[in-house]
Amino acid sequence: MKFEEEFETVELLVASNHLTKMVDAFSLSLIKAERQVRKLFTYLVFQNTNLSSANVNELRNVLADSRRVYFDGVVAGINVLSNKTLADLYGAHYEEDMQRLNTAISYRNKIFHGQLTNEKLSSEDLGVVIENIKRWCQRLSEVAHGEYGYCGFGRNSFQKSSFDLSEKISTPINNPDEYRAFITEHMTR
C-alpha cells in the first residue's frame, strides 16, 4: 500500500456529490495521518531481534490498552525510539507542516464533539486542510521508506525490515513488558 492508494478513498469522497463530503474527507484524512505515524512507530519497535511474530498480539494489546496515548505521544515515542527525531527525518518544513497538522487535530476535536470551530470552516477551507494533511503523509511516507524501508501505509507494520536498522534504533524494546514501560514513560499524557 502506497500513499496514493491510501488516499484513493479520500479522493472519492472529495469528488462525490454528498453534502458532507469535505467533513468526511477531512476526518478520514486525519485518521490516515494518525494511523501512519502509529504504524511507523510499531514498525520501528518490531525491529528488535528479540521480538517475533509470536509477540504481535501482545504488542497490539499493550498499545490498545494504553488509553492515554495520542498523536503527540506517538511522535514522542518515535523521537525516543529512533536515532532520528521525526523532525530530523521529515526535514525541511517540519515545524510548519506539524503546526498545520496540530491545527487540523484541534479542528477534528471540535467537530467530533459537535462543536463549532472559531474559524467557521468552509468546504474550501477544509479542502486546504486536507491537502496539508496529504502533503504531510506523502512527505513522511517518502522519507520513512527511504530511511527504514517502510512508509507507514503497509497493511502489516509488524514485519522485519529488509534494511539493517540496528544502528537506527537508539532505544531497543526487547519484550512486551519493556514496551508497556516505554509507552507509559514516554508516550502517555
Number of strands: 0
| Average of per-residue pLDDT values | 94
Radius of gyration based on Cα positions: 17 Å
Gap between N and C termini: 31 Å
Structural class: mainly alpha
Strand content: under 5%
The dominant shape is globular
Secondary-structure element string: HHHHHHHHH
Taking the sheet with the most strands, its summary is:
none
Compute the number of helices.
Answer: 9
Helix content: 55-70%
Unreliable spans: none
Salient structural properties:
single chain; 189 residues; mainly alpha; 9 helices; 63% helix; 0% strand; globular
Descriptive overview:
The protein is an all-alpha fold and 189 residues long. The protein is built from 9 helices and no strands. The protein is globular. It starts with a helix and ends with a helix.
Note the topology.
Elements: H1 3-6, H2 8-15, H3 21-45, H4 56-65, H5 71-81, H6 86-90, H7 94-112, H8 123-148, H9 176-186
